[in-house]
Design a protein that fits this description.
The protein folds into 2 domains: about 180 residues, Growth Hormone, Chain: A (Up-down Bundle); about 190 residues, MFS general substrate transporter like domains (Growth Hormone, Chain: A), CATH 1.20.1250. The longest helix has about 50 residues. With about 400 residues, the chain is mostly helical. It contains 17 helices and no strands.
């Protein structure tokens, strides 16, 4: 792997920050939106459904779009789409014009996510994948700060969304100016063909060809379970600790924040050691940590259970970026653009569906069922990852 160009690496970090900016601001803006448009609390679901739908769809077609537009062109167009959607949020006079813009933002964000991940997986060392995903957390933290400042100092949510739109517009302009630099100088297919003594490049694999491969479906399932487990634990741990285990509001909130912080800290810390341990060994050790942490969180109601929650977060930390980084080696460079898009879509679907499924279980069996549900997902995740390791292990 060649050393990445410094300015592309820096731009990738800034892009992940910008990708996180709009993802977490709806909750801050929602009271103002609800009162301004005269809505019920349930109306927030319309925005979330539109955004998830756009994100899911764009992941499915990101590989094909990257083939048409190039990675740089896709990043520029997608950033412009997100900026357009955020500007629409700032300007929309009616709710009927506001919530459909979530699909526009989801389409753009999903394409940015898929394009950046597939490019980084093929060109950046594994440690940078972990740090890039940690930088998403910087954006996810900064976005609510921007929106809170806009609400607290008078301009309101429209100014907050306008500020975010300007930030994404700047990123889109940067991608447009550097679009040719994102293209591979020597495509992997040409290199592979040269090694075999052929002057012709190997054909690019199509999306349907990728979906015929069992390894692709294994990774799709793994990403679905990963984000489902991560999001379910994050969304339900407060309620479990508060209502099921008797913690106070502040204590339960602090441990919930600590869970999310363990994900960020884990990605930063493990990025320094992944090259020494090896990505595959790190993934297997982390998968065992996921099971251990989830079982502890499910079985122990005291301090051990809360420490298990932190172990779960820290063990989940390297999974998404390192699995993305290993996709070219496990599936091949021709399959990677499509596979990464499918993985992003699957991850989006898991984050949308599995927390709701856990909620249905908790409604029937009681809030205490959240822990066993998380442990079950963790064991399934570990089993699927072991199956992937065996399926992609090189022959002796």
């Amino acid at each position: 792997m060649q050393r990445p160009a410094p300015f592309l690496l820096l731009l990738s970090y800034l892009a992940f920050v910008s990708l996180g900016l709009p993802d977490t601001v709806l909750g801050v803006a929602w009271p103002s939106l609800r009162d301004g448009f005269g809505l019920s609390q349930a109306a927030v679901g319309a925005v979330l459904a539109a955004t998830v739908s756009g994100y899911f769809l764009s992941g499915l077609i990101a590989g094909r779009l990257a083939g048409w537009l190039g990675v740089g062109g896709l990043l520029a167009a997608s950033s412009g789409l997100v900026a357009l959607g955020l500007a629409g949020y700032a300007l929309a006079p009616r709710w009927s014009l506001f919530f459909p813009l979530g699909a526009v933002i989801g389409l753009g964000s999903g394409a940015i996510d898929a394009a950046l991940n597939q490019y980084a997986a093929r060109h950046f060392p594994v440690r940078h994948l972990n740090w890039l995903h940690a930088s998403w957390s910087v954006g996810a933290t900064t976005g609510p700060v921007i929106m809170t400042a806009a609400l607290a100092h008078g301009p309101g949510y429209r100014a907050g969304y306008a500020t975010l739109a300007a930030a994404l517009g700047v990123m889109g302009a940067a991608f447009l100016a550097t679009r040719r630099s994102w293209e591979e100088r020597r495509p992997c297919a040409v290199v592979a063909a040269a090694v075999k003594g052929s002057a012709e490049p190997l054909p690019r694999e199509g999306a349907w060809d990728a979906l015929r491969r069992g390894r692709v479906w294994l990774q799709i399932a793994i990403f679905f379970l990963y984000t489902g487990l991560e999001t379910s634990a994050g969304q339900w741990c407060f309620t479990l600790m508060r209502e099921g285990r008797g913690l106070g509001v502040e204590a339960a909130g602090s441990w919930t924040a600590a869970y999310w912080a363990s994900l960020t800290a884990g990605r930063i810390a493990l990025g320094f050691v992944v090259d020494r341990i090896g990505p595959d060994r790190l993934l297997r050790l982390a998968a065992l940590g996921v099971v251990t942490g989830a079982v502890l969180f499910a079985a122990a109601s005291g301090l051990a259970g809360r420490l298990g929650l932190l172990l779960l977060g820290a063990s989940l930390a390297p999974m998404y970026p390192t699995l993305m980084a290993r996709t070219p080696a496990r599936l091949g460079h021709a399959t990677t653009p499509h596979a990464v898009g499918f993985q992003v879509s699957s991850a989006t679907l898991g984050a949308a569906l599995l927390p709701g499924a856990v909620g249905l279980v908790a409604a029937r069996a009681g809030i205490g069922a959240v822990g066993p549900a998380a442990a079950t997902m963790a064991v399934l995740f570990w089993a699927l990852h072991e199956a992937l390791v065996r399926a992609t292990r090189p022959p002796p």
